[in-house]
Amino acid sequence: xxxxxxxxxxGADGVLFYGVPVGDRLTIITSRRQGFTPDALPAGLxxxxxxxxxxxxxxxxxxGWLAGRAEGSVAQALDGLAAFLARYVALRDAxxxxxxxxxxxxxxxxxxxxxxPYLSMRSAERRCGKSRLMRLLCRVGFNASPPTTHPTEAxxxxxxxxxxxxxxxxxxxxxxxxxxxxxxxSLISVLNVGFEQGGAVSRxxxxxxxxxxxxxxxxxxxxxxxxxxxKDTLEDRSLTLVMFRRRKDEAVARLxxxxxxxxxxxxxxxxxxxxxxxxxxxSAYELAPKVLDGQEVDDRAVDLWAPLLALALVADAEAGGxxxxxxxxxxxxxxxxxxxxxxxxxxARLITALQKAADEIGTAVTxxxxxEALQAGGYAWVKSTxxxxxxxxxxxxxxxxxxxxxxxxxxxxxxPDALADLARRYNPAAGEASGREPASNPAExxxxxxxxxxxx
Length: 456
Prior knowledge:
The structure is a single chain. The protein is about 45% helix and about 15% strand. The chain contains 16 helices and 15 strands. A hairpin with a 4-residue loop joins strand 4 and strand 5. Helix 2 crosses helix 8 and helix 8 crosses helix 9.
C-alpha cells in the first residue's frame, strides 16, 4: 500500500514531514532527523506532487535540525506567540492570546489532526483590529498566503492542494448571502469540507482532447474575517473570536521591521517545536477528547478544540503552568456562542439600550424578558430571541444556562462594568457621560462576569 504525502507538510505513523526547497531541489525532512529527496523516500511513501513552492520552514532551521544542533519547545513557542499577538493587538479577553497562539502553532502540524478548526473573526463595527490581527497571523502561520478579500473557488482548492498552508480571507460579509449566489455556493461547498482531513472536491479538467476527473484535497487552516457571522455550517466548523474597538488607554505596539524579525524567530520556533515534540503532541491529541468530554460541550466543539488542548497539555508537561486549564476555560466560554447569528445595528445605540434595560429590569434576565425590554425601547424590529442573540453575540453577550425558581433557564448577564467598558469602546463620549465608572482592568471585568455566570 502506497501512502502519498503532501510535499509541504504531512504526517505518517507518528512522523512529521516538511518539504524544504534547497536551490531548485526539494528536500523532505522528518521529525526523526532524516532527510530525503522526493525520489528516495522510504518504502511505501510517495509525494502527491513535487512542487509545493516556498516553505515557511527556513533552510537554516532545517539544516540545524538535521545536524542535531537545534531543538524546539512547545511551551516556548506557545508563550512566544501569545506575547507577540498580545503586544500588537488589543484583545479584550485576556485568555484569547493563548488559544490564538495554540491555533497558530497547530497550523505547523495540522495534518497530524483529524480535524483542524477555521478561525472566524467578527466584530459589531469596523476598525476593531480584525485585519491587523489577520496580517499578524499570516506572518507566523505555516505557509500562509497573503490575505485576500475576493477569493475564488479555484484559489481555495488549488492553493490548499499545492501549498497546504494557511489561507486568510478578509471582509467576508458576502458569505452571509446576496451577490452572486452561484459563486457563494461554490465557495461554501469547498469550505464546508476543508476543515477535516481527507476533505476533497472533484472537478472536471481538460487533459488534451478530453475532460478527466481531478480530485483536489482542500484540508487547510483558514482565517475568515468580517462584520457578519458565517453561514451556520461554517460557524459550526470555526472557533469564533469577537473583536472589539480599542480604547484610547489600550496601547499596542506599531508594526515595523522588528515585527518581521520577531515573526521569523517565531516561525523557526514553531517548526522546531513540532519536529521535536510531534510524538507527544499526538499522544496528547488522543487524550484531549476525554478531557473535553468533561466540559459539557458538544461533540463538534470537542473536535475543534482537541488540537489546541493537545498543544497546551504538552506545553504544561514541558514547563509547568496552567495553559491547558486556560484553553478549557476558553472552550467553555466560546462554545455557547458558536451557533449565534449576527444581525447587527448600531453598536453604541444598542449598548445604551442594554444599560437602560439593566437599570429597569435587572442584570440577570431571560432572553424573552430582555427582548421585550428592547422592543419597548426602539428595537421593535427584533422579532425573535434568535435575532436578539445575533445582535448581542458580537458584543460578547451570550445567554448561559442557569436556574430560576428551580427551573432551568438561560440568562443574559448585563454586568454594568462590562457594559460601561463596551460604551467606552464604541462611543467614548457617551461612555464618559453616562457617569458609570469603567472597570480599571478589562480582563478583571471579564473574569467577574464569568464568576457571576457560574453562580447563576
